[in-house]
Amino acid sequence: ITIYELENFQGKRCELTEELPNIAEKEMEKVGSIQVESGPWLGFERQAYAGEQFVLEKGDYPRWDSWSNSHSSDSLMSIRPLQIDSADHKIHLFENAGYAGRKMEIVDDDVPSLWAHGFQDRVASVKAL
Questions:
Q1: Could you list the pLDDT tens digit for every one of the 129 residues in the chain?
Q2: Residue 15: count of CB within 10 angstroms of its CB
Q3: Cis, peptide link before residue 40, omega less than 30° from 0
């Protein structure tokens, strides 16, 4: 992954192959754009992998709103590769808060439409296993 200090892949740049808990360690004030050669990676709003997180898959992110739809923050201060440690991974979606109500399990497939799988258009809680 390559991070740039300015939008549109301009300014100071830094290529990363491992986690970076604080972008200031690379003498950068902020991240303005990102190019992901292979991923996925997780970007975080604050240092030490804290705050809102952003999933960055292979591709170009020319400005902060291309990786975030957050209106409260335009910062990305730490980043790390997303690693799946097990072949046995799945996610459970629940209709209600507190892991209650109807449950949908997703194992390996993308689910572009919850309706197509008989689930409602609302997910109130999620468990990643």
A1: 999 999 999 999 999 999 999 999 999 999 999 999 987 999 999 999 998 888 899 999 999 888 887 666 678 999 999 876 666 778 888 888 899 988 888 886 777 777 877 777 778 888 887
A2: 10
A3: yes
Q: CA 7, 49, 9 angle in degrees (round to 5)?
A: 15
Find, among 71, 72, 80, the residue nearest to 3 by Cα.
80
Rounded Cα distance between 109 and 103, Å, is: 16
User: How far apart (Å, rounded) are the C-alpha atoms in residues 60 and 56?
Assistant: 9
Task: Say which CATH topology domain 2-81 has.
Answer: Gamma-B Crystallin; domain 1 (2.60.20)
Strands (E), 1-124: 2-6, 10-15, 33-36, 41-46, 50-56, 59-61, 78-81, 91-96, 100-106
Structure tokens belonging to residue 76:
């990305």
Among 63, 57, 61, CA closest to 6: 63
Determine the residue type at 54. F
pTM greater than the 0.70 cutoff: no
